[in-house]
Automatic annotation (TrEMBL):
Belongs to the FliQ/MopD/SpaQ family. The chain crosses the membrane at residues 12-35, 55-77. It comes from Mangrovicoccus algicola. GO terms for cellular component: bacterial-type flagellum basal body; plasma membrane. Keywords: Bacterial flagellum, Cell membrane, Cell projection, Cilium, Flagellum, Membrane, Transmembrane, Transmembrane helix. PANTHER family: FLAGELLAR BIOSYNTHETIC PROTEIN FLIQ (PTHR34040). It is found in: Cell membrane; Bacterial flagellum basal body. This is Flagellar biosynthetic protein FliQ. It is a multi-pass membrane protein. It holds the Pfam family Bac_export_3. The lineage of its organism: Bacteria, Pseudomonadati, Pseudomonadota, Alphaproteobacteria, Rhodobacterales. InterPro entries: Bac_export_3, FliQ. Role in flagellar biosynthesis.
Amino acid sequence: MDQEIIFDVVRESLWVAVAISTPILGVALLTGIAIGLFQALTSIQEMTLTFVPKMIAMLLTFWVSMTFMTNSLVSFFRDTILRLIAEN
């Protein structure tokens, strides 16, 4: 297996990882900003106020985007990994 093929597979797998993690990280970022703004406006400094809503939002996003994540991983495996195995 050539070095170029390995680098291409690693590069493509990193892009798949970024695409899969983007929804969850985006929701965590937006939820954190909203809660931080709420805490700054009300002067409430409670640690559970930042943790619990962010975890709930992330779990809901994971549940909603699970189909997208699964399809992305399966298509990457089928189109890239299995193709490389079959060629060698």
